[in-house]
Amino acid sequence: MKKIMPALLAAAVLVTGCAREVPVYQTDVFAMDTLMTVKFSGGNETLLEQVREEIHRFEKLWDVNDEKSDIYRLNHSHGEKTAVSEETAFLTARALELSARTEGALDISIYPVLRAWGFTTGQYEVPDSRTLSELLNKVDYRQIVVDGQHRTVQVPEGMMLDPGAVAKGFTGDRLCELLRENGVSSALLNLGGNVQALGGKPDGSAWRVAVKDPQHPDEIVCTLEIRDRAVITSGSYERYFVGKDGKTYWHILDPATGYPADKGLLSVTIIGENGLECDALSTALFVMGKDGAMTYCREHPQMEAVLIDSDRRLYLTEGLLGIAEPSEGMEHTVISRQGSDGT
Ligand code: ADP
Ligand code: MG
């Protein structure tokens, strides 16, 4: 992950005058290549500073280009067992678990392929299919070993990790924990479009979170009312380039082919209690495509999802009824769990 202008956006504002005159603290931080906004009521300036420090600490741990970062050291470990921070050991272990659960649709060892496309540097190019198939030999999450007790990770020679699909969700979870431990009961985090809520609004009502129209990201397709939930989206419109052939290529890659995942979906939003899990699943379900994602939703009733297919049709899991409000003119289909394994 690249680091740009850290100082510029790290301004804090103190807003008073909300419903019960509780001060609201807010900070904007540019980290992990995106804008992060954290606001909470209660707490104090010191807590705001701690939030900023945590964000920068995590960013440093996983910066693929920083020689001192955990991820850089793992990616240059020549197959040796490597000592890492508690956070990196946890993040990697959870990512591997979710890679297995999604049968490799999520694979944090996708980095060599991602790099060949230029998504790690912004120097985009379309790799030829031979290069891609060679690089795919180096992609296999099952070969990575985490020892949580001794906090070591072992990445086979030639393989490399990229925690981009899960890092923001993990960061959101840890920030919510920090805020909760310090007595905050109302907070809203927006980490580059990944939203995580702690409690409801200061007045007790639910937060309203919009799901963007992937074809017109200034417009919204539906609004969700949430408390204590993560709302995390993966979409083809978030980061992409147009190749010399005039085609659009985006940053979510199918580990089965090495090409951008393109199986009938424009965006996937996952709603659940755990940010890391929602982040992992939004990427994985995007890779699975429309049919695979629908099946996954039917079989996993503990999470909710909003899918938008290539024809801009909206699909909502049934647990969102009463929470989701589709925008005017937006028809929707309910993904029912009746009779599925999970009900
Ligand atoms: P964003 O970071 O834009 O919110 P995602 O959470 O979906 O979106 O993560 C996309 C990032 O994850 C990519 O930029 C890349 O770093 C990484 N990535 C892309 N494809 C995969 C994949 N199949 N498995 C794991 N990581 C991936
Ligand atoms: Mg993700």
What distinguishing features does this structure have?
alpha+beta, ten-stranded mixed β-sheet, disordered N terminus, 28% strand, binds magnesium ion, 343 residues, binds adenosine-5'-diphosphate
Task: Give a verbal description of the structure.
This protein is an alpha+beta fold and 343 residues long. It has helices at 45-62, 70-75, 86-101, 111-117, 129-136, 167-181, 275-299; strands spanning 12-15, 24-31, 34-41, 81-83, 145-147, 152-154, 186-191, 194-198, 207-213, 216-226, 230-235, 240-242, 248-250, 265-272, 304-309, 314-317, 324-326, 332-335. The strands form 4 sheets. It has a 10-stranded mixed sheet, with helices on one face. Strands 4-6-5 form a 3-stranded antiparallel sheet. A 3-stranded antiparallel sheet has the order 9-10-17, with no helix packed on it. A hairpin with a 4-residue loop joins β5 and β6 (152-154). α1 (45-62) packs antiparallel against α6 (167-181), α3 packs parallel to α7 (275-299) and α6 packs across α7. The radius of gyration is 20 Å and the shape is globular. The chain starts with 11 loop residues before the first strand and ends in an 8-residue tail after the last strand. Residues 1-19 have low confidence and may be disordered. Magnesium ion is lined by residues 165, 234, 279, 282-283.
